[in-house]
Amino acid sequence: MVVGCDSSGGIGPKPLDKVKVDAHTLGRFTARVALMEVLSTGAKPICLVNTLCVEPEPTGFEIVQGIREEMQQSGLDSKFAVTGSSEKNVPVRQTGLGVTVIGIATRNRLRIGCSKKKNIVASIGIPLVGSEVLYGERKGLVADTKDLLKLLNLDFVREVVPVGSHGVLHEAKTIAKESHLRLQLAQRVEVDVRKSAGPATVILATLPERQLPKAYDKISKPINVIGRLL
Question: What is the DSSP letter of 7?
């Protein structure tokens, strides 16, 4: 069993939200993070739980619509189970949301700790957070579920990992550690490896360097080499 989760606070359409965004978009991006975390391991999502810290109507309904749209983008069928709860007793002036996704995988198909020595670590997308995210998505700078699924379908890609608030460097070091390797950063890195990638605006992939041109052919988002595993 594989579990992925994400949460959001102070982002949404309500009066006290610090970052203003419509509820539908909030649901879409929050669900995206949890779905990508589960999909990246090679697991199949079977259930999504939304914990809505807002009233059922209209904000809760719009958030769930965004969640369902992201599920469709992930290729999930109508049998996919969705459940959750909302705040029905107290008036809410600031948006809060949590999404948990549960998936199932066979142990021998898990894509965790399977990177190889001399693989490069490449980033897809640009680290963005807060109000930068929607602008970045319009400009084609944000990695998404479709990009992740494309990477998973490339037989030369070893691991795929979404990057969130810990940033690119943290996740790249985690990939190396889980494969009992170490990360050697590239001499010149074109992205800020310490910046938060917010709602998983970046995906990391490990692959042989000679296969990098094939990745460029499949992915339209910015691709940068972060380093090498030794």
Answer: E
Between β-strands 81-85 and 44-52, what pairing exists: parallel, antiparallel or unpaired? parallel
What residue type is 149 in one-letter code? L
Give the number of other CB atoms < 10 A from CB of residue 180: 10
| C-alpha to C-alpha distance for 23 and 62, rounded to whole angstroms | 5
Cα 49 from chain centroid (whole Å): 16
Q: What is the number of alpha carbons within 13 Å of residue 104 lying toward its C-beta?
A: 3
Cα–Cα distances in angstroms (integers) from residue 83 to residues 47, 67, 145, 147, in the given order = 8, 11, 21, 26
pLDDT, tens digit, 9 for 90 and up, residues 57-81: 999 999 999 999 999 888 887 567 8
d(CA 179, CA 171): 13
**What three-state secondary structure class fits 226?**
strand
Give Cβ neighbours of residue 187 (< 8 Å, ≥ 6 apart). none
Whole-structure pTM value: 0.93
Nearest to 36 by CA among 45, 26, 49, 27: 45
